């Protein structure tokens, strides 16, 4: 059934098209409202298009199902590797020279299709590969980066502990004790003994290597260790009954006298300051992931608003629904503008902790508003997986919290404004 709104503009009457048809044809349907993607090179644009097509084919149709079953999309690892999703920022593993803005759009696209899949990729390629890329020696990079880019080795990143999330820099309790042992051939070798526990560690139940952050009992500084799996004394137990990012398999980890050779200690990590370099890089990408969550919800709500009729009209014709759609697109557009600059600053080598902290706090707060409005547009159907918004609505909560909560990122910005750290 074709509906009109009774609008009688002469030009429109001449065109013979209804208000709804004109609305459908208008370019406001494109979420890249200010054509930000024009900044990508043609090679980057082609790659984003190929990734989007893969996601539409292989991820979108199954995302709700995996979410319900609380399973990671492990079967897609070869496809992701072929598309160059792993290690795209590193010269030794990238498929072509690319910008941080390109990688950011890729993060947005994956999250737009499925935030759990984006987190799975983010943990492996962002956190674990960056830990080795930033903190590893030439030999460690040589050993791990290629196999990780090809998806032959999957990584996890173990920082958070049951008692320490926001205060890991100060509070980290997991210990690393260095010792020298007889090598059985008349010489000696150095090794480390790790003890403690970790919580929320993504991919850890099936990862081939888990980067564990622990405090050196000799100098009290945080060091990083590549723990090869399986390892004696290491257990990872899947966290069940999550209600957000269910497609990410998170684990509680126990380290009970886990022995790691000195050659598997990340050679260039000397304190938590070095860990912060990794978090700065990934935090900016999580801001883009948040935009993808908002876009996914917005697109589903927009389609629904045009289909769903109440009072004899599509609900998209009601001013209050249009306000929610307009505010959602404004939030998305403002977040993209902010995050574009942060990504450009990364390429320019001038991105600081407070820049990515502001992007993460801002984009996740705007995302949370968008998923709320989009859920509301769907009425009762908004709480059911089948209608396309509920998953984004639930997933937004974890994205708001991990890689530094909204509060902590805001306080990092506050520290840069005032020179006073409110969180020590
Ligand atoms: C789905 C998911 C995946 C994750 N994946 C990983 C992973 O792969 N690896 C990993 O290491 N970690 C991971 N995390 C952990 C994540 O980084 C932490 O949850 C996050 O840092 C917050 O820590 P917390 O949950 O312990 O909360 P807490 O630190 O206990 O914070 C609780 C509340 O107190 C507030 N708060 C704390 N301190 C202050 C302060 N000084 N001022 C004001 N407010 C404050 C916080 O903002 C928050 O609202 C993951 C978490 C989730 C949910």
Automatic annotation (TrEMBL):
Keywords: FAD, Flavoprotein, Oxidoreductase. Coiled coil: none annotated. Its cofactor is FAD. Gene3D superfamilies: Acyl-CoA dehydrogenase/oxidase, N-terminal domain (1.10.540.10), Butyryl-CoA Dehydrogenase, subunit A, domain 2 (2.40.110.10), Butyryl-CoA Dehydrogenase, subunit A, domain 3 (1.20.140.10). Residues 279-417 form the Acyl-CoA dehydrogenase/oxidase C-terminal domain. It comes from the Bacteria. Belongs to the acyl-CoA dehydrogenase family. This is Acyl-CoA dehydrogenase family protein.
């Amino acid at each position: 059934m074709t509906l009109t709104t009774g609008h009688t503009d002469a030009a429109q009457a001449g065109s013979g098209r209804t208000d709804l048809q004109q609305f459908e044809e208008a370019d406001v349907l494109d979420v890249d409202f200010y054509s930000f993607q024009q900044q990508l090179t043609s090679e980057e644009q082609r790659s984003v298009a190929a990734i989007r097509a893969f996601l539409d084919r292989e991820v979108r149709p199954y995302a709700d199902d995996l979410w319900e079953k609380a399973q990671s999309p492990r079967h897609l690892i070869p496809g992701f590797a072929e598309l160059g999703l792993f290690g795209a920022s590193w010269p030794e593993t990238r498929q072509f020279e690319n910008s941080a803005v390109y990688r950011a759009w890729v993060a947005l696209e994956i999250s737009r299709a499925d935030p759990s899949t984006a987190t799975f990729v983010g943990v492996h390629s962002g956190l674990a590969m960056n830990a080795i890329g930033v903190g590893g020696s030439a030999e460690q990079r040589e050993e791990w980066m290629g196999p990780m880019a090809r998806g032959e080795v999957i990584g996890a990143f173990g920082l958070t502990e049951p008692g320490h999330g926001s205060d890991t820099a100060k509070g980290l309790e997991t210990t690393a004790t260095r010792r020298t042992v007889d090598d059985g051939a008349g010489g000696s070798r150095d090794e480390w003994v790790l003890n403690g526990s970790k919580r929320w560690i993504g991919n850890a139940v099936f990862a081939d290597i888990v980067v564990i952050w622990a405090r050196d009992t000799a100098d009290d500084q945080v060091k990083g260790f590549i723990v090869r799996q399986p390892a004696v004394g290491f257990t990872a137990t899947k966290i069940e009954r999550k209600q957000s990012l269910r497609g990410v398999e998170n684990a509680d980890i126990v380290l009970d006298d886990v022995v790691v050779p000195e050659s598997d200690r990340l050679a260039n990590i000397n304190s938590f300051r070095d860990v912060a370099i990794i978090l700065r890089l990934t935090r900016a990408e999580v801001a883009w992931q948040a935009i993808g969550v908002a876009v996914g919800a917005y697109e589903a709500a927009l389609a629904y608003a045009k289909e769903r009729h109440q009072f004899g009209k599509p609900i998209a014709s009601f001013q209050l629904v249009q306000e929610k759609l307009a505010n959602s697109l404004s939030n998305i557009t403002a977040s993209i503008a902010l995050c574009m600059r942060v990504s450009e600053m990364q390429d320019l080598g001038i991105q600081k902790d407070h820049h990515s902290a502001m992007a993460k706090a801002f984009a996740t707060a705007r995302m949370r508003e968008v998923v709320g409005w989009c859920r509301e547009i769907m009425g009762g159907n908004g709480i059911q997986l089948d209608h396309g918004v509920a998953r984004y609505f639930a997933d937004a909560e974890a994205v708001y919290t991990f890689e530094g909560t909204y509060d902590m990122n805001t306080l990092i910005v506050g520290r840069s404004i005032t020179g006073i750290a409110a969180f020590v």
